[in-house]
Amino acid sequence: MKKEFVVIGLGRFGGSIVRELVELGADVMAIDISPERVDDFAQIATQAVAADTTDESVLRSLGIRNFEHVVIAIGENIQASILTTLMLKEIGVKKITVKAQNDYHAKVLQKIGADHVVHPERDMGIRIANNMVSNNILDYLELSDEYSIVEIQANEKLAGYTLIDLNIRAKFGVNIVAIKRGKQILVSPQAIEKIQHEDILIVIGSDIDIHRFEKKALH
Ligand code: ATP
Questions:
Q1: Strand, helix or coil at 171?
Q2: pLDDT in tens, 9-22
Q3: Does residue 72's CB lie within 6 angstroms of at least one atom of ligand 1?
Q4: Of the residues 118, 136, 162, which one is the last residue of a structural domain?
Q5: 134 and 106, same structural domain?
Q6: Whole domain around residue 61: which residue ranges?
Q7: Across the strands, what pairs with 69?
Q8: Could you say which of 18, 19, 57, 99 has the lowest number of CB atoms within 10 Å?
Q9: 128 alpha carbon to ligand 1 midpoint, in Å?
Q10: 2 Cβ contact list (under 8 Å, min separation 6)
Q11: Is 58:52 a contact under the CB 8 Å cutoff?
Q12: Can you name the residues that pair with 117 across neighbouring β-strands?
């Protein structure tokens, strides 16, 4: 069965979600108050509808309740974003993801029952900053306020040693969950696996421990 989603708000963020969902083979109903924006998605989404989602009767007539997951990507108009979230909750939508414009907006969304609140600009800013301060950290994914997964470039200091030799978990409290070696990915590498110079290590741990590992083990 095809997955069915609704995306409300077809700006850069919502629009990119619609495109990717379609690319991934999902059915997507794309909604925006602006008919011009809707026109842009008429050939892309399964269904593109011009509607004001702060109007409860509109939400009901579109049958949004029956979709698996709704993304609300209305940014600027915080009031419309909050009202839409409230109404979708009221009509019984099971899963709602909402883009927050700022921390206050996020707090309200959480209070009224949004299942997942995202801050794409803030999160991408954090990610880029983390990549910038370290030459070895290639990518960064925040799991919570304290924990992350990072991609770290191995170097000559680690090359030739096995995971047992390096004893990284005991020394630094972080785990190497995978190793990218060219096109190959070694998931859950064995303790006897020897690290190679060009390897990219996928490391999970607390931010403090990852930072310690990155500072002490690689420099
Ligand atoms: P982005 O940062 O993702 O590019 P944007 O800045 O282009 O977004 P926003 O103001 O954040 O635009 O709003 C995203 C979309 O939400 C717009 O296309 C806007 O027309 C739509 N929108 C605003 N209010 C409503 C509403 N009440 N119902 C449906 N769509 C709405």
A1: helix
A2: 999 999 999 999 99
A3: no
A4: 118
A5: no
A6: 4-118
A7: 5, 95
A8: 57
A9: 25
A10: 25, 26, 27
A11: yes
A12: 98
